[in-house]
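2024-03-11 09:14:02 INFO worker-7 job=invfold-0412 stage=load source=structure_tokens
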């Protein structure tokens, strides 16, 4: 059985006072049936970890460098994130791929660095609208999967997040059929590369305008093991019902 994950990506949002949302979440979900991970900006990782303490909420980061230390002004290594209290880190988010020209090779190096440090790497992929309209979605996903996931990845150390770029922050959500097609394809590719048992152990998250109102439908899709939530993870009143929907979809 794959334990499901409700992950929140705060992106470049959040202040110390907003950490209060984590207290509320922890109180509302004291013994959740799913993993809960919140990825605030780096400045909030240490205080968020101190605050969530022994609760069920894990804290993640949004990016890491491929190297452990060195002359990389402004960057943060997986080791530093781990020391600050993070247990997870997103790599290859489309906003990083776009804003910082991150290639699959760089994303793979980041995932490798994260895993080597004992962090769980949440490796993000997804097609643009142009690629979907050109009919090349599965080809794009196959290429990203092959090149962004390091050989050392396992279902315990890596999570795959499918986030169609056109559905991020737009209010447009992929249909259940579109999500099912891509998640089924990702599962098949993972099995091909890592073998049946190992391929089945990876957890696959959907991301892109997930809200309380569409969560039930998304979580009913085969091979959806949770969500990576942006906007709706910033507020406990929006994120909590998504967590509950995921718990209700879990056996
Ligand atoms: P939204 O949920 O705001 O569309 O963002 C999705 C996302 O990019 C999560 O990483």
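2024-03-11 09:14:09 INFO worker-7 stage=emit residues=251
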């Amino acid at each position: 059985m794959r334990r499901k994950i409700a992950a929140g990506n705060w992106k470049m949002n959040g202040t110390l006072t907003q950490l209060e949302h984590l207290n509320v979440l922890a109180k509302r979900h004291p013994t959740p049936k799913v993993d809960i991970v919140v990825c605030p900006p780096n400045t909030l990782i240490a205080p968020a970890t101190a605050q969530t303490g022994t609760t069920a909420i894990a804290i993640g980061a949004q990016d890491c460098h491929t190297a452990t230390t060195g002359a990389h002004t402004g960057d943060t290594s997986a080791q530093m994130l781990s020391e600050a209290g993070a247990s997870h880190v997103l790599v290859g988010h489309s906003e990083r791929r776009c804003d910082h020209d991150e290639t699959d090779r760089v994303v793979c190096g980041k995932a490798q660095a994260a895993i080597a440090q004992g962090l769980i790497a949440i490796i993000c992929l997804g097609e643009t609208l142009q690629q979907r309209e050109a009919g090349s979605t599965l080809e794009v996903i196959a290429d990203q999967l092959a090149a962004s996931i390091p050989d050392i990845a396992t279902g315990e150390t890596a999570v795959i997040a499918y986030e169609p770029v056109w559905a991020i922050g737009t209010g447009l959500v992929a249909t259940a059929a579109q999500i099912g097609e891509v998640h089924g394809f990702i599962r098949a590719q993972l099995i091909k590369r890592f073998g049946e048992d190992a391929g089945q152990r990876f957890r696959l998250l959907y991301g892109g305008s997930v809200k309380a109102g569409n969560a039930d439908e998304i979580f009913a899709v085969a091979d959806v093991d949770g969500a990576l939530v942006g906007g709706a993870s910033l507020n406990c009143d929006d994120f909590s019902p998504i967590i509950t929907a995921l718990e209700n979809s879990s056996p």
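2024-03-11 09:14:09 INFO worker-7 stage=report msg="The chain has a mean pLDDT of 97."
2024-03-11 09:14:10 INFO worker-7 job finished
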